Structures are given as structure tokens and as C-alpha cells.
Inverse folding.
């Protein structure tokens, strides 16, 4: 069964450093998403991406964050100048479409620890 | 804005016990409702879904009914197993892109 994969599974970085989290969505999917979960809190939507553009973003997704699909398979989340409060589990997801009939498939997550 | 509230955990049950995890929602439109499960060390997996009022989603012995009048989508299972130990997330989507999640409920099932 096709699945979304994410690398690395755990990333430790120092405050102020840049990190890139990588995702490989399911191959025929067109919509890509990033969510995050701060420890003990809700899973929160960050951004959705379609046709090489951001289609929706939350208030969390500020100028510190950017997303890119650098090639036909990868989807990345870049966090510039990380802060302690960026420590969280980051989930990538993909879907074949939007609306009620389409499921978002989630990856296993990358745990980011900012020290 | 739209939101999901689910019962706090952890919930600890013995094997073969009946499970209920409560979930209520607030939404301005007509959302689709979901239950996701996260097993230790794994990602979020869709457990079941319902897209309109009175629909019942079911999978692996779990059920949930979309109740518009009470804005609820409670998860139930008649007889839990140790392998059901996981974190369960109630969620909604009102079309568009983002899924809105509840805080998650951790379930421990003892043998």
C-alpha cells in the first residue's frame, strides 16, 4: 500500500539554525500539507500546497517557514532561524484531491527538537 | 472558528471492555468527521469517517455516528484488545484544505 514517508525521524538543532524537513508524498497525489503537534497539544494545520503554490496557510505559518517541491517526488518544509517553541512533531500529508471524498494520508512524522 | 473537543485521557481498560471516547465539534459549515489513530512510533492513520448527518463510519470493530443534533461523533468499540492501545484523534474538515484535530485521547488496554 502506498504511504507517505518523512525524513529524518528525529532532528535535533540549535536555536537560530535552519532546518529542512523532507517528505515524499504518495506518487499520484496532487495536494500536500504540513501539520505540527507540540508535545501534549493538538495537531495543528500549517500549510497546504498545490500546483507549486501555497493554497492555504495558518497564522502559525509566518515568514520563518517556507515550503517547496524541489522535484517530482519531494516536498519540504524549511524553518529558518529555529526557536525553542518550534520543537514539535511535524507531519506531512498528501491527498489526491480536496473535499469530502478525499482522504489525507499522513506520514509518520519528524520530531524536531530545538535546543 | 471550527473546533473539536474530545475527552481527556488516558483511558485505561481491560481487554474485552467496552470503549467510548467522546467527541464534540463546532463548525460553521457541514463538516466531514474523522477518527484517526496513532500507534506508537507511527503516523496518523484514518480509522473511520462520516460525511453527513446520521452516517455511521466503521472499521476494525470501531464505530462512530455523525450526530448533527448533538454535534457529536463518539467513538465506540464493543470489545477492545491490547493491540488497540494507541492515541485516538477526532477531527473535522469543512471542505477546503485543512483538517482540524482534537487534542487526542490515549488508550491503554491491559491484558
Amino acid at each position: 500500500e502506498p504511504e507517505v514517508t518523512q525524513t529524518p525521524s528525529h532532528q535535533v538543532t540549535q536555536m537560530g539554525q535552519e532546518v529542512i524537513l523532507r517528505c515524499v508524498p504518495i506518487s499520484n497525489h496532487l495536494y500536500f500539507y504540513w501539520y505540527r503537534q507540540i508535545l501534549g497539544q493538538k495537531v495543528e494545520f500549517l500549510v497546504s500546497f498545490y500546483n507549486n503554490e501555497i493554497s492555504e496557510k495558518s497564522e502559525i505559518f509566518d515568514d520563518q517557514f517556507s515550503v517547496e517541491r524541489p522535484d517530482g517526488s519531494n516536498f519540504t518544509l524549511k524553518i529558518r532561524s529555529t526557536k525553542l517553541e518550534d520543537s514539535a512533531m511535524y507531519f506531512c500529508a498528501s491527498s489526491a484531491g480536496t473535499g469530502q471524498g478525499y482522504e489525507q494520508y499522513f506520514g509518520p512524522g519528524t520530531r524536531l527538537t530545538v535546543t | 472558528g471550527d473546533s473539536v473537543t474530545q475527552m481527556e485521557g488516558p483511558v485505561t481498560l481491560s481487554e474485552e471492555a467496552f470503549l467510548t471516547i467522546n467527541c464534540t465539534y463546532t463548525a460553521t459549515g457541514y463538516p466531514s468527521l474523522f477518527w484517526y489513530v496513532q500507534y506508537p512510533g507511527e503516523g496518523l492513520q484514518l480509522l473511520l469517517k462520516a460525511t453527513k448527518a446520521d452516517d455511521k463510519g466503521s472499521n476494525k470493530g470501531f464505530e462512530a455516528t455523525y450526530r448533527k443534533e448533538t454535534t457529536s461523533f463518539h467513538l465506540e468499540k464493543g470489545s477492545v484488545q491490547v493491540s488497540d492501545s494507541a492515541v485516538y484523534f477526532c477531527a473535522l474538515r469543512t471542505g477546503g484544505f485543512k483538517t482540524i484535530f482534537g487534542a487526542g485521547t490515549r488508550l491503554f488496554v491491559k491484558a
